[in-house]
Structure formats: structure tokens, C-alpha cells
UniProtKB/TrEMBL annotation:
Lineage: Bacteria, Bacillati, Bacillota, Bacilli, Bacillales
SUPFAM superfamilies, A to Z: Winged helix' DNA-binding domain
Organism superkingdom: Bacteria
Protein name: PadR family transcriptional regulator
Gene3D superfamilies linked: 6.10.140.190, Winged helix-like DNA-binding domain superfamily/Winged helix DNA-binding domain (1.10.10.10)
Annotated signal sequence range: none
Alphabetical list of PANTHER family matching this protein: NEGATIVE TRANSCRIPTION REGULATOR PADR, TRANSCRIPTIONAL REGULATOR YQJI
């Protein structure tokens, strides 16, 4: 990554973030490319780019006496590391497991997962062994290394952070005063039916995490709980869709009366 936009000293950084642990007399390098385009105007107008750390636009990593600022999504790496903590997997297997076990609460495209896997291997947190195959490309089986397991446990021990919600459907609904009620109702009915279909698929997996006594299997309790949350969310969304449909039907009746 090209690091060419600017440099500043530890004194100027600590002015903004006094508690940030920094080596003495370090040099901070930052890259213009790491800032999303919609933040660049603010970036260029801000004397000290370290202030972006306070607002979650950047993350810090130290290496020697250099502090490098990079825009990144940290949670995906831990999802990948968590899946690899139990068994070796190929990249394809990993994306399939992600789809089955994680996608109902954390969405990521398979290309993002592959990129994260490559980053983790460069950092020594994941390693692979090569399996030779006939009539097809050799297969890489990835596993979590000891340093990777240590970092995963460190992350699991951190204090919880407030969740950040991004829901395109709710963004659309917030603008439904601009469209006819009938169109809004059609959207909500389709959304409800989609969530009902997903709920039925999730329910089919539920038995995989239960013992014969219908209690969660200890080794799968985390997966069981996240699946249960996903199912509760689907039911809640469907209930909310019915409520919202009722609101728009009453609006439609008032407009025609």
C-alpha cells in the first residue's frame, strides 16, 4: 500500500487521543487511499487524520516505530478465524460454512472471505497444507495457527461494542411516504414471505445443534444460540411486516374515503 499522504509526531497524535499507547518519537504514516471517498473532504480539511480513529473510520496497527492507519472491517476476520478453530477447511468449504452458520447475522461476499483468508495467512494467523488432486487443481486446507487462536481468544474477551445496524429494507420503508400505499404493501408482503422462507430453512438446521434430550450440544452452543437469534429475528420481522401492512391499508382506506 502506498503511504505517501503525510506524517506527524506522537505529540500531535496524543493531543487527540491521550490514552493511545504509542512508542516514543514514533512517526505516523497515513495513506489517502485508505479513506473512503465520502470522507476525503473531511480528511483533507482535518489537520490531524488520527482524529478519524475516534469515529471508527480507521484502525491502528503498530509495527516497529511506525503506526499505520488502515480502513478495515475487523469482525469478518474473527468470523473466519472462528470457523477455522474447529477443523481444517478449504476456501470453498469455508464459504459454505459461512453461509450456513454465520450469514444470518453477518453478511459477506465469498470474495471478501477469500481476501480475508489471504490476509490472515500473511499475518501468520492461518496456515495451509496442499492436497494433491488428480484431474483438478490441488486443494489448500487452511487451519488456525497458535497465534491465531491466541488473537481469537483475546477478541472474545473484549468488552462488547454497540451494534451497528445497516438494513436496506428499513431504509426503503423510511421513504415509503413517497410511493402509493399499495406499492408499499406489495413490498412488505414480499419481504414477509422471504423471511418466512428463510425461517423454514433455519428451522431445518436446528436439529443439528440439539442432543437427543433436546438440549443444545455443548460444543455447538454458540452456533445454536446465533441460529436461535436468527429465527427470533425472522419471526419478529414477519410480525412487524404484518403491523406495517395494517398501517398502510388504513392509510389506503383513508385516501379512498
Amino acid at each position: 500500500m502506498k503511504m505517501a499522504t503525510g506524517f506527524f509526531s506522537d505529540t500531535r497524535v496524543k493531543k487527540f487521543i491521550p490514552d493511545l499507547p504509542l512508542p516514543n518519537n514514533f512517526i505516523c504514516a497515513f495513506s489517502h487511499k485508505t479513506i473512503p471517498s465520502y470522507h476525503r473532504l473531511a480528511w483533507e480539511a482535518t489537520p490531524f487524520c488520527i482524529s478519524f480513529v475516534q469515529f471508527g473510520f480507521l484502525s491502528c496497527s503498530t509495527k516497529g516505530d511506525i503506526l499505520k492507519l488502515e480502513g478495515c472491517s475487523m469482525a469478518l476476520r474473527y468470523a473466519v478465524m472462528g470457523l477455522l478453530s474447529g477443523e481444517e477447511m478449504s476456501g470453498y468449504d469455508l464459504t459454505q460454512q459461512f453461509s450456513m452458520k454465520v450469514s444470518h447475522f453477518w453478511n459477506a461476499h465469498h470474495t471478501q472471505i477469500y481476501r480475508e483468508l489471504q490476509k490472515l495467512e500473511v499475518e501468520g494467523l492461518v496456515s495451509h497444507r496442499l492436497i494433491e488432486q488428480q484431474d483438478r487443481p490441488d486443494k489448500k486446507l487452511y487451519k488456525l495457527t497458535e497465534p491465531g487462536m491466541k488473537e481469537l481468544f483475546t477478541w472474545l474477551s473484549e468488552e462488547p461494542k454497540p451494534p451497528k445496524m445497516k438494513n436496506e429494507s428499513l431504509l426503503r420503508v423510511s421513504l415509503f411516504h413517497l410511493i402509493p400505499p399499495a406499492q408499499a404493501i406489495a413490498f412488505l408482503e414480499a419481504s414477509r414471505d422471504t423471511h418466512a422462507h428463510i425461517l423454514s430453512m433455519m428451522d431445518a438446521f436446528r436439529g443439528d445443534y440439539m442432543s437427543e434430550s433436546q438440549e443444545p450440544i455443548a460444543e455447538k452452543v454458540g452456533e445454536y444460540l446465533t441460529l436461535d437469534f436468527g429465527m427470533r429475528f425472522m419471526r419478529s420481522w414477519m410480525e412487524w411486516c404484518d403491523f406495517a401492512i395494517g398501517v398502510f391499508k388504513r392509510l389506503e382506506e383513508n385516501q379512498t374515503s
